[in-house]
Amino acid sequence: MEDKEFFQKAVNSKYAKKIGKHTRLKESLIKIFFAVNGTMALIFIILIFVFLFKEGFKALDHIGLLDFLYLDRPDASGNIERVFQWYPTSEEPRYSLIPLLIGTFLTAFPATIISTLLGVGAGIYLSEVANPKFKEFLKPMIELFAGIPTVVLGFIMLVVGASFFNDILHPANRLNAFVASIGLSFVIIPIIASLTEDALHSIPNDLRMASYGLGATKWQTISKVILPAAFSGVSASILLGFGRAIGETMIVLMCAGNAANLTSNIFLSVRTMTATIAAEMGEVSQGSDHYYSLFFIGIVLFTITFFLNLIAEIIINKMRKKNTF
Amino acid sequence: MKETKIVVKDLNLFYGDKQALKKITMDIPDKRVTAFIGPSGCGKSTFLRVINRMNDLIDHVKIDGEVYIDGVNIYDRSLDIVNLRKNVGMVFQKSNLFPKTVYENIVYGPRINGIKDKKVLDEIVERTLNQAAIWEEVKDRLNDNALSLSGGQQQRLCIARALAVEPEIILMDEPASALDPISTAKIEELIHDLKKQYTIVIVTHNMQQAARVSDQTAFFYLGELIEFDRTTTIFTNPSKKQTEDYVTGRFG
After folding, report:
1. pTM score, two decimals?
2. How far apart are CA A49 and CA A171, in angstroms?
3. What is the full per-residue pLDDT of chain A (325 aa) written as tens digits?
4. Among all residues of chain A, which has the CA nearest to that of B55?
5. DSSP letters for A30-82
6. Cβ distance B108 to B160 under 8 Å?
7. What is the C-alpha to C-alpha distance for residues B208 and B238, in angstroms, rounded to an integer?
8. Which member of A215, A220, A224 has the closest CB to residue B83?
9. DSSP code of B25?
């Protein structure tokens, strides 16, 4: 048999080189380094999460869950009156989150509607209409717009925007939910535009060709083939924009007027949850009911944005799977 | 010879600076199958897209020369390209069904032409699926996603979808190149049936396929039309050396 001969070759073979201890150690150190880096972010997020919930739930020790919704109190004539008010520093503190929730949605909803119209439109323009060379210039510009510090946008809206809308619309309050939602739109439009463009761009060109080949116009192709095929991606972009509108702080703090009105009038001042935390956290005495209730607002805010992002993420993943034609 | 449907005169096509088609002149007859053969990159698919002006969708394409269908110059500036594409249907190499139901795929074309009556649309669906010889296979699956069909079924559905806008000419760009032999045979049989009503132009890599389905064959090489004749002549007695080398498998 040649077998013996075959295995004897191993002695001098160039394949026989053993891995060095040094190399092995280096490899495992590199592995550990990246593993630590990778999990660090996750650990921090979990710590923040734990801290937020620990502090926030302390609010429930002194303030009942129902007190975060309303307070029943006797009015001047002795009748019980149900109030939805946020007056945490009053002698008779009221902790209703309802006006703050309304303030948040009264700024975030209009902002999302405005941004959806303009942002999806811009996304369609970028993906389907614009000359590719111009698009290469325009898309980074739009994304750059999303990077402007929100305090700057808030300042511009406060000084210029609010006066402008005051002159043409004569709102009851100069600073109101409408002005804030216009300010928010500046942040959300680029997000929606950029993500919509990504979603439309991921639709295979074959589908466009099929549609044109059947004698469809450009607009028919966009509205009947491209947009339906990219529906999940576009709706995810809108949800992400909405999540951002709810979480955004600086613009609403500067432009919404910060009066915790219980109102459905978009031209009145409102106060959002984010602005409440930002404005009051600096002055609250640590360990007070007020302090813990601000953390409780944080929990509510976190829960809302968490679920919005989760839904958007699920939709985006679904889109990825669906688009593997 | 039947009467002529498409006339091409001195057609040149450029991608940027590169000339992809050189002085093509040919007459394509009505209600026959015309096959374009040639090695990859010879311009046969590009030439096919000239006939329904699909090249207009690609940047940097420049075309000069004339193309007439029924005497009308389709490169006339004032011509309605959308209307042209309704009358010149196209089937692509890879099936490109919309991610919608079987039914919705078929009625897409008629709908954009303004047909709203459900009964009329139902009739179109049944007629075109029958024409594409796929009715029996999908009649119970009209509301399933079209992408759940097999590859061969998808391609026949693409043909049915093209037929739904009632074109006179059907362009096929390697319609069976991604299919198994049985599906390919079905498509070829279908082409044979369709030529009674339609003028068919088919691009194919497969020379046996060209020999089986077409009445006349055009051989393209490096952007030039080398030879255009009856299919039997091209395959048994070509007049040009290059054609003979290609059809006998000496290159390509």
Report:
1. 0.82
2. 40
3. 567 888 887 777 888 788 888 889 999 999 999 999 989 989 998 999 899 999 888 888 888 888 888 888 877 787 888 888 888 888 888 889 999 999 999 999 999 999 999 999 999 999 999 988 899 999 999 988 888 999 999 999 999 999 999 999 998 889 999 999 999 999 999 999 999 999 999 999 999 999 999 999 999 999 999 998 888 889 889 999 999 999 999 999 999 998 888 888 999 999 999 999 999 998 888 888 889 999 999 999 999 988 988 888 888 777 666 554 3
4. A209
5. HHHHHHHHHHHHHHHHHHHHHHHHHHHHHHHHHS-TGGGT-EEEE-TTS-EEE
6. no
7. 16
8. A215
9. E
**Token pair for B111:** 């709908």
Tokens 């020999």 correspond to: B211
**ipTM confidence score:** 0.90
Is B114 exposed, middle or buried, given 0-12, 13-18 or 19+ CB atoms closer than 10 A? exposed
Q: With beta carbons under 8 A apart, name residues in chain A contacting B100.
A: 228
Q: Do B162 and A211 touch (CB under 8 A)?
A: no
Distance from CA of A242 to the nearest CA of B (A): 28
Domains along chain B with CATH numbers? 4-247 (3.40.50.300)
- Topology (CATH) of A94-323: MetI-like fold (1.10.3720)
